[in-house]
Amino acid sequence: MTRRLAWEIATKVLGRDPGPMAGADSLSHQVFVGADVVVKVIEAGRHPRLEREIALAPHLPAGVAAPLLASGVHPAGAGEVRFACYARMPGETPGMGLPRAGPATARALAEQAVRRLRALHEWTPPADARPILRQPLDHGGFTGRTALIEEIDAIAGAAPTALIDGLLALAEGAPENVAATVPVHADCHWGNWLADGSTITALLDFEWARFGDPMDDWFFVIADSGPHRLITLDVVAEVTGSTPGELRAACEIRHANHLAADVRLAVTDPAAYGHLLADRLAGLDEVIGQRTWWKSSVD
After folding, report:
1. Which has the closest alpha carbon to 26: 75, 93, 72?
2. According to DSSP H, which parts of the chain are helical?
3. In 30, 36, 165, 255, which residue has its Cα 20 to 30 A from 263's Cα atom?
4. What structural domains and CATH numbers belong to the chain?
């Protein structure tokens, strides 16, 4: 994929020259950013998550996401790409782990992120959006004890016995079922936000959005706050009325579930996901072996 292709798409959508287009980091798509436009592209037919995001975009509550300007398919050599063209919002991503934020900025960002996520959780999706949010995904989030035990059984041959035993012990104390009735972003780590200084301007990448539990989103913003994890946990506790201990326990089970699901993907589809295995097993060792969610600080 080239900047020229993104430039062609933006020119067609805007009806004018969008100016230079720079590449941006993305794990699942190619993203190109201009002065006032962002173009997200993927080979047509590669996976359907951009189509999911495009279908949801017109229905999302106002002020949460960047406005979608246009979407469709565009010729690319002998094939074609699917694209989504968004208005560029001010600012830049705070980055996974909030690497550039001091404590005051981290708290301000966390407070605003929680407000935007609550607006999403309180949104009543229209009839056209509900089937999209119900569509199954590779990652469905934590749905209950039985489903987690099935994930653990699926990875028993790929993980050390001590980790499997620890996962099973954690699962035994988990709730049997978790209601999946609230719209959640389900991937709201800090790399998927935009902020202008200490002011959040947009939540990006709704390709994993689904019906779930609000804790699915609280987990992501807390877990990805790096050295400011306790600040974000405190903010979420204040807003939700949960105790820090309740949040730690809920985050721990979701973190374990998320990592186990990635290990399962790495085991069942090594060609596509095998590169995740070592990293996710190391993550499970931190969550299960070192019980990082119960530390008083973040190393």
Report:
1. 93
2. 3-14, 49-56, 103-121, 130-134, 145-154, 161-172, 215-223, 229-240, 244-268, 270-273, 277-284
3. 30
4. 3-87 (3.30.200.20), 103-294 (3.90.1200.10)
Most distant CA pair in the chain: distance in Å?
A: 60
Angle at 150 between CA 144 and CA 153, to 5 degrees: 140
CA dist 289 and 299 (Å) reads 15
The band of 78, judged by pLDDT with boundaries at 50, 70 and 90, is: confident
CB-CB contact of 84 with 57 (8 Å): yes
pLDDT band (50, 70, 90) for residue 299: very low
Measured between alpha carbons, how far is 94 from 47 in angstroms, rounded to an integer? 27
Q: What is the pLDDT of residues 87-104, one digit of tens each?
A: 999 999 999 999 999 999
Tokens 């993980």, located at residue: 159
Average of per-residue pLDDT values in the chain: 93
Q: Is residue 134 within 8 Å of 184, Cβ to Cβ?
A: no
